[in-house]
Write a structure and sequence with these properties.
9% of the residues lie in helices and 47% in strands. It contains 1 helix and 9 strands. The strands form 2 sheets. The chain has a 5-stranded antiparallel sheet with strand order 2-1-5-6-9, with no helix packed on it. A 4-stranded antiparallel sheet has the order 3-4-8-7, with no helix packed on it. Strand 1 and strand 2 form a beta hairpin.
């Protein structure tokens, strides 16, 4: 394995509803399988039946814009939630290619209304859930 082919996260980018969030510091989206335990006669070990999945993740940004408030403040007050789609792209000029994923049916769990700390650069975290995804490019 050539260590120069390991992808550097510096070149990761996300778009939320087609708007590029250049101030993104870190991004994670993961899928967790859901299973139901099943007992099988004559078998002492635990068996499981796959019944679905759930998607969750988090966006961490350097606090440059009021991203969470702009996207969610009115929606949380009125109950009229926006349709949200996230596109993630991870590439590195020295790697074997790029990885792109579309994350659909996104709902954000919370946003920070106000926060500050003296002599400290601020960050914002936006945890989310999602119901669907599509792998566009893989390496």
């Amino acid at each position: 394995m050539n260590p120069n082919k390991i992808i550097n996260g510096t070149f990761g980018t996300i778009w939320v509803n087609n708007e590029k969030w250049i101030e993104t510091k870190s991004f994670e989206a993961k899928v967790t399988g859901q299973y139901e335990d099943v007992d099988i006669a004559g078998k002492l070990g635990k068996s499981r039946k796959y019944i679905g999945y759930e998607g969750s993740g988090s966006i961490n940004t350097n606090k440059v814009y009021s991203r969470g408030a702009k996207l969610l403040a009115e929606a949380f007050k009125t109950g009229n939630m926006p349709e949200i789609k996230i596109i993630s792209k991870l590439s590195d000029p020295s790697s074997y290619g790029a990885e792109r994923v579309i994350i659909k049916d996104v709902t954000f769990d919370e946003f920070t209304l106000a926060k500050f700390e003296l002599k400290s650069p601020l960050e914002e975290e936006l945890p989310f859930q999602f119901g669907d995804y599509e792998l566009i490019d893989t390496i």
